[in-house]
Every structure is written in structure tokens, then in C-alpha cells.
What does this fold into?
Amino acid sequence: MRQKAVVRKRRSIYIVWIIPFVAMAIAGWMTFKYYDEKGFDIVITFKSGEGFAVGKTPLMYKGIKVGQVSAIDVSANLTKVDVTITVDKRATGVARKGNVFWKVEPKVSLTEVTGLSTILSGAYISVMPAERKLSKLSVLAYQDKFVAVEQEPIDIFEPGLLVKLHAQESGIREGAPILFRKMVVGKVLDVSLEEEGVDYLIHIENAYRHLIKTSSRFWKIDGLEIRASLSEVRVEMDSLATLLAGGITFDSPREAEPVTEHHSEFDLFNDLDEVNLDSEVIILKSQQGYNIDAESTKIYFKGMSAGYIVSIDYDAGADETTFKIKLRSAFKHLIHEGTYFWAVTPQVGLSTVKGLDAIVRGSYIAFDVHKGSEKSQKSFRLHDVPMPVMGKHFTLLSKRGHALKSGVGVKYNDIVIGSIYSMELTKDKQQMKIDIVIGKKYEELVNDSSTFYLQQAIESEISLDKMYFNVSPIETLIHGGIVLKTDAIGRKSTTRQFELLESSAAYEEQRYYKSGGKRFRLIADTLGSIKIGSAIYFKDIKVGKVTEYTLDKKSDKVAIKVYIEPKYADRINSSTRFYDISGIEIKAGLDGVDIRTGSLVSIVSGGIAFKTPLKANAVEEMHDFDLYKDERKADEKHVEISLQMDRGFDLKEGSRIIYKSMTVGRIKSMRLKGESINAIALVDAEYAALFTKDALLWTEDLQVGLEGVVNASTMLSGPFLELLPGRSDELSDHFFVSAAAPARTIHQDGLRIVVSGVRLSSLKVGSPLFYRQVKVGSVEQFRLSDDARSVELMLYVDRCYAYLVRQNTIFYNATAMGMEVGVFGVKVSTETVNTMIQGGISFVTPDEALGKAEEMRSFTLYDKAQESWLAWAPSLQNDEAMCE
Amino acid sequence: MTWKTDVSEEKSLCRYCGHVQEDTVSECLQCGAILHQRIPHSIMLTWGYALAAVLFLIPANLFPMMVVTALGNDEGSTIMEGVIYFFKHGEAAIGAIIFIASVAVPIFKLAVLFFLLAIVHLKRHDKALLGTKLFHAIHFIGKWSMLDIFVVALMVSIVQFQSLASIHTGGAAIAFASAVVFTIIATEKFDPRTMWDEIENTKGDYQCVRRL
It folds into this structure.
């Protein structure tokens, strides 16, 4: 028992020692752990120790603390700071060659805010191992001295795709987003300057890495895009991030192979336009630089942006500027032998405005193809004048140059269809000859119905009845321009010469004229309130307007050109009277006050009215009319007379009254009154004096006789009334129209004598009176004698022959034909053949002539002359002074 | 030998009820408790516990006692760092208290223990009286040595502001607590009477020695 106990107790003694051993084990383990955790020291050199605190600032790896700053010292050369970090023993990988350390601070950049947590917790140091796998990392050489990098290095182990982009120039910042259909799929990790431009390293997130295809094309996008042109200003804005840092986007052909390898290299284009650029470089050579800026200058083809200038070099030796340009693939085929390049530069001078568009978008290079060719050519000369337009040439004539310049466009419906090729004076130096070229495909727009007019920058018309403004584009304001209007497209084109009208108003006017309107000239003493555009009224209907007025220097009168619309043009004839209806006319007299006004419009802007009282013959274009001061004056112009006639004589309204081949009046109306016809005729006031009491009026009609055709004109104009004014001073307004013409001698100064014959024979009014077969007078009237035993003929002897008629003169009928039949044949004696038909009277005076016969002396008319009479040859002296 | 011990007088003290009797009996005549003339294996146990305490003191002073997490940043502080912190910030009194309670006292206690053990082993009976006084001193202050642990416990429970700031115990706390506990046990296991004993009792059990 005791023995047993002893044994037990002895055993328990040794168990006691377990306690310190356990304690030692625990403490030892803890101590070991402590030192184990305390790790090892590495030294990292930073540029500055700002934000670091000994014992506080941690070394983090993926957000986990793997060490702590244990000491901060200024480096030996005092320029940097050596930070000693005690690294967790576990994180042995930290001290491996190739690892990268950097300071994480709160950073607010353009594109992102990073390290926000460090604002409160303070900066920390982060580490990125050189290798992804621990096994690989541990193989690397041990290193405990590092130099920290400035910025967070690219985490090459982040899942995703790293792509390298080459660009000509920078413009995208680190952190800028990579967008695909405006979705952020990655970001720019690094920008580095290389020998040939700039290299970007971009990271595409894993989820989108399949979007990068072998044929993907990358281009820069700007956050803000402002396109300004004359027509619009457009501002496009992407995200704020792209606005500040720029961005990159790309396209990916669906069928292409996705990129799998890291660091695949792509080109980064400046913009989408450049993406489509053809790789081939075209060289243009020129003597000057044209102020062209390689950065912003584009190449245009027919106004379309077709390419860019890659570079501009000046060769001092050859004194030549070489432009290297790249064109979009779509325009590649246009570059061949027949391509013409020219520089468009704004030229603004006192007399020249050229390349206005170039003011806005800067000088640029344009090209066009002037002939098709398959032959490839890569080097061209850059011309400084635009390519001559290929097309049809036309000539415009203009009185003035209108500040037009060659190159100014010809527009049709605001489309430029051609341009002025050249301008020169005509040979007579009176007009400008403008040679225009109309593009081939627009040639058919020009035909005989075409009109060219000068486009004016601002066309305005303000009047009481309308306001009209037409402001042309700015271009026209400076350039000027020519507008083509073609009324009927497809009409034949025969002429190549046109008149260049001054304005669209002139064109409109000419259109009127072409459609049948007429122009007349009104002559007035003063212009009054009439101005261009003043209306012409007919029965208060506006039928035309004043187009122009000039002062006739010779007559010192104003010539007003008026235009009458076609449908009213026939209202104008020779009887038309124009009178001024401008203003207000007030006449005050004993019998009252008479106020006359036209319409309000005519009061202000002047107006002309006309009335056409008669159906007279039409007048030609530009006929001169008098412009009367007012309607009354116009009315005073005519005197009405009434005519009475037995028959109508085919007269009608408008038939003329003629005196000495001059129209002095016209029939205004004809009316049947009882058995006779009553006609009212209007006679020009200036001829009213002709209508004396003893004036004769008769109808003249076509007469065909042996003597010829008389009054042939009546065949066309119809019968007319002939007037023979009398000798009386007294005027009359009532006349009787006789059917036959009175003797021509009536009312003439001369000797009148009366002869009495047995019969009239073939004598009639007008039958001639001969003296020695010289016609010295005619039969003026004949009538039966009062007792009807004889015929009394009143003979008229011309004043200059009156001295031939003596008191003992013998008259005989010359009509009588003597026919003597004898042994020697038949002797026919007659005065003339004419007298055989017409009849005639001859007279002889005995040798012993008596004194001159007095007026209305009666003689006997013998039927035939006696042989002896014919031998008489008295010597008669004419004492009338006026007759030689 | 100028003094008598229970051993020399062949008496045995019941440590349970304090009854003194002949050392021939193995059970207390009064209360029936098993009698030991000395605490069994006293020296060896003291050595063991004292050594354990010493061992624990090392991590206790190396590790942070308290970890303050402020704004996600951990900041541990060891006992001495805490003391230095208070002294630096003008709180010398608190610093002194913590220093005394957490550094000076545990080390003092262990030092005394080793001193006592040295007295026993070297039979320096002349130092036995001093040793006894020191023994009672460390026995007395033993209960106050957990002061630092209380402070930490209080702080941990009070400063809990989630992510803004929180305090939790560091590894040192356990080590320190262990060191204190082992020091107390070592003190308890030490029998000051052994300092007066003539016989070298490496095993600490007179009965056994004698009986063998």
C-alpha cells in the first residue's frame, strides 16, 4: 500500500514539469509567431515620404496588409526617402526581383477618383508582384531594395486583354475610357512616347475581350465635338470623362477572328474619317504653301471631305512645297491621270471675294476629275485656280459689270449649275460680255425661254399694298450671283447669247413682256408724284405699272415708261388718253367745290389712269402718249361732232376722218335715226378748226378706174370719211356726209366761170379743162339750167391759168370725137383718149384777146371746135406773181 | 542550527485545520486531511510554474496588449509602448501605475520567487527571514497583478465603435494573464518553510526521502 503510494507520488512529481514545458511551448510558440509575423525588412526608395508614418503606414497587397513601415530615412544623397518596411513573413514574395511598389494616395484625376479610402486612413504602399503564381515568384531572385514607381503600375494580371495602339500624336490621357457603342469596355492604362508617335496600352475588360478582332479599327473620340459651318453649328458631347480625357472607340467586324494574345498592336486613328483613309499617300507639289495647315486642312471632292493632309514639307532647294495627302478609300478610284488638284484660299480684297467658304473652314485643297483615265498617278501638281468647268458656254450681255467676278456661280433654283468663266467688254465698249459655263448635266436647262438675271443680296419692296423682302445667302452678298430662270424646260435652244437682267424684278417684268404685255411711253411736263412702280389703272383696275422714267433732254420733258399687262394691252390704241390720278385735285368755284382723288394708293405712290374712248387702230410698243394732268384735260382733247348720212357707207365705229391723209377724228358711235344715220365722231381738239361751217365730208371708197386704183388703203382699213375744210371762219358741229367726193377744186382760189351746153355729154365733176391740151382746170359742178334748156357747168380754172380765160374765149366739148370719112380714109379727131371716156372741155381765145374774164362769167359751150379756132394763137401774159 | 523546525521536532502541521501532531500519522487526527510536513514537491512546482511565468512574460511584452483599430488601420501597442505613450503625453501617474502593475510587479514577483528558490537550494538560512518577508509581500500583491488585463478588458468592452474605432486584445494579453496566473500558482506552491530546512530536499518531499 505504502509502496504503491510512493510509486504514484514519484510519478506525479515528474508530471509537474509538464507545466513549464507547456508554458515554454506556448510562450515559445507565441514568440516564434511574433518574430515570424514580424517578418523581414525591405527598403523602398520613394521620392518623398509624404503621408508615411512609422508603425502606421501599411504595405498592402490587394487590400491586405502584408507589412508596415518601420522606419523612414532620408537617403544617402538626400534626394529621396528610404522607407523601411517590415514585411509579413508570409509574404516572402514581396521581396522578389521585379516587384513594383508604389504609394497609394487619394488621387482625383480627370477620369476617376482613386484611393479615396486613404483620405482617412492615410497613404499606404502597394505592391504588385512580378509574377502571378507563387511558385514562379519564389523562383525569382531575392531583393530587399526597391525603388518605388510614381504611378500605379498596370496590373498585367488583371483578367482582360491588353492591346497596344499606335497613334501619331497623343491627346488621350491615361484612364480615358475605351468605348464600344458608347459603353465603357476598358480604359487607357499607359501612354508612352515612342519614336514614331505615341503608344497607348489599353486594357479591355475580360467580359468584352471578345470584341477586339484582328481587323478591329480604333479611333479617338473627343468628348466635345463642335462643327461649325455657315449653315449650322453643331455641338456634340460625350461623357464628361471623354470630354476631359478623350476616349477611344473601335469597331469590330462581326466575322473577324477575336484577338487572344496580349499586346496585339493596332493603329489608332484620329477620328472615324481617318479610319477610312486609304493607306496610300498622294503627293501634291506646289510653289507655295497657301497658308494650309496640315492639322486641320481637309481635302474636298465636290464639297465632300475626302481626305487629309498628312504632312507639308518645303524643299528649299527646289522652292517647292510638297503636300502629302491621304484620301478616304471611297475616293481612291478618283485619283488617276485626269485628276486636278487645286487650293482654295479665301481672298478678300476691295475687289475680290473668293473662296468664301475657305474663310470659315480655312484654306483647303479640292480636287476633281476632268477626264476619265485608268492610268494611275500618285504625284500631282497643286494648282491655284479651280478646275475649269466642263460644260457649255453661253454669253450674257450686261450694261454694267455688277461687280461680278469669274468663278461666281450661276444658280438655277439655288443650285449652282455653272459659273462665270470670263468677262470682257464688247467691241463697242458699251456692254459687258460675260462668258458663263453651264455644267454638262445642266446644259438642257438653258434654252430660248431662259432668262438670266443678277441675284441681289437683298431684294425688298415696300409699298402700301405689299412688303417684300428676300435676303440671299451671305455668299451672294459678297460674291454676287447670276440666276438662271427657264420658263419652259425642253424648249429648243438656238441662241447662246442672253441679256443679263439687273434684278429679279426686271426678270419678272420681262416675263410680263414676254407673256404679251406692252410698254408705252408717256410724255409729261413734270413727273409729279409718279414713281417707278406706280400703278396704271383702267376703269379703276390695276392693269400695269410705271417701269422707268427719264428726262428727255431735248424736249425737256419727262418720258415715263409704262407697262401694261397683256390682257389689258389691247385696251390701248391711238385714241387712248393717259392722265395722272395722283394726289388730290380741288377745284373751288362759285358753283361749288369739286374734289377729285384716286385711290389712297395712287395718292401716295402716284398713279396713272387711261381711257380709250374710241376703237382706234392699235399702237405699237413704245408708242408715245401724252400724259395729261387730269381727267378733264384728257377729255378736253376731243370735240364731238354729229354726222348725218343717208347710208352707212360701210362705216363703223372707229372709222377715221381723214384730212390730207391725216387722221383728225374717228367715229365714236353710229345710230339709226329715222331714215338717216346719225353718227357721233370725236375729233382731236387740235383739228377742230377744220370743221368749218362749209366744210365737206364724204366717204372715200375703193375706186378702180382707167386712171388707176384710188383709195386702195380702204381695202384694208375699210371706208373712211374724208374732210375738206371750208373757207368759213365759223365752225359747225353738224355735217352731212355725201356719198361722192366733191370736186377737188372746191374751196380753192381760182377763176370760176359758167359754161352752158346743150347736153352734158360724158362730162362730169372733175372732168378736165384743157388749154392747148394742158389741164388748167376742171368741172366743179354741173346742173340743169333753170329753164332746163341747157346744162350749166361751173368750171374751175387754176389761179395760175386764170389769165388764159378772156372775155371772148370760146369753150368747146373736147369729148366729142370727130370722125371724117373721105377719099383718103377715116380721120378721127379727139383731144385725148382719156377725154374720150372721161370727157373734157377745151377752150381757145381769139388772137385779138379781150380782157380777162371776170368771176362767174357765162360762156357758151360748143359741141365741137371749128377748124379756124384751132389756129388762134394769141399772146397772153400771166401777170399773176405767184405762178412762175 | 539555532532554530527548530517541525521536521526536527518530528511534528507535522495540518495545513487544512492547523492542528499540530506527530509526524508519524499520515492523516490529521483532528480533521482527517492528508498530512504533508511540507507542500509536496513545493520547490519543483515552484520552479516549474515560475519558469512558465517567465516564459509567458516574453510574449507578453513583445506582443501588443491592445489593438486599436481606427478607420481601418490597426495599431497595436505593447505594454511598454503604452507606458511610454502615457509618459510622453504627460500622464506619468497612469504610466507609472501601468508600469508598476504590468511590468515591475510581475518581474519583481518572479525575481523574488527565484531568490527564494535560490535560498532554498543554497541553504542560505541567513536569508530565510528576508525570504519569508518577501514571500509574504509577493503573496500579498499577487492579486493586483491582473490590473493591466482589467484595463484592457475594460477598454475592449467600452471602445467598440465598429469600423470607426475599436479595440481588441492583442496576443500579449493572454500571455500576460498566463504569466500572472503562473506566478501566483508558483507563489502558492512555494513553501517558505523549506528555506529553513537543513536537508537538501530537491524533491521537496521529506516524507518520501525519509521513508526511502
